[in-house]
Amino acid sequence: MNRREALLVYVLVAAVLAGGLISRAAEERKGDWTLHRSEAAGKVEFGLIEHLQGGSSHHESSWPLGVFVGLDLSKPGKQNVKFSVTRDAGRFDCEGFVENGEGAGFFHFTADAKYRGELQSLGFGGVNEEKQYAMAVMDVNVNFAKEMKSEKLQGMDTDKLIAFRIFGVDVAFIHELRSAGLPATDCDKIVAFKIHGVTPEMVRFVKHAGYDPNEDTLVAMRIHGVTPEWMKQMQQEGYDHVDLEKLIAFRIHGVSPEFIAKLQGLGYKHPDPDQLVAMRIHGVTPEYITSLRSRGVKDLTIDQLVSLRIQGIN
Q1: Is 29:136 a contact under the CB 8 Å cutoff?
Q2: pLDDT single digits (tens) 132-167
Q3: Cβ neighbour number for residue 70 with a 10 Å cutoff
Q4: What 3-state class would DSSP assign to 16?
Q5: Predicted model pTM
């Protein structure tokens, strides 16, 4: 064998070895999949369980049935299946079985070689192997990244792209928030809106009621249950122009329409919001007032009742 032939053999062997390494690298991300029926039409609940050192990673959500290429759930009985899901970030190749719309098996994930460069060209760097897998799971496609980039959001990066997909933030939601009168430019606040249920409809209701809330106040309202429905109940009790911070304090301390109605039944007509909060903080309940009256202690003001409780008089 001359040097030319030896070099050719070396190149061929190196190519085979490199191909094996690439193949094994592509198979490094693997695990199990599960499939269940979904209440949503045209969707299934699809789970991916990746086995890691010292534990596992599990994600399950509704996936459109149309993304499963090669999967036919219309066939009756148990069947072996082999299908794939291709997304911009990579492809999931799956094998296993299904029976009556339920199934399980194993998958291999192959990352798309062009994906990182495409995101990099949009200004989204730092996409490592772990993140690319997560972006494939959550279907963070290139077009979605372009859309979010065009919105000029504060704090936008690959982590926020994933968070937006997890919580269902899209261009329509952002535009609806803005049409309702919010700036909707801060990524963290937009995610918080989705997590806590700040909707465009809620924003419109609060503004129509005469308030001009900032984004943090809206989140606080949802956290503590100051909903449009609850606000309407408070309005019926005569509290329709109370500061939002005080309405939040009402919810924190338990000032409810029922509490106010009982006080009114005892003759305390429309107490001041601060008095209502003080009563709840110090335990001046309708039952406490009734107990005092049964012992001949009558006609006390709210401030006097609060003072008695502060002094420990039961």
Answers
A1: no
A2: 999 999 999 999 999 999 999 999 999 999 999 999
A3: 11
A4: helix
A5: 0.84
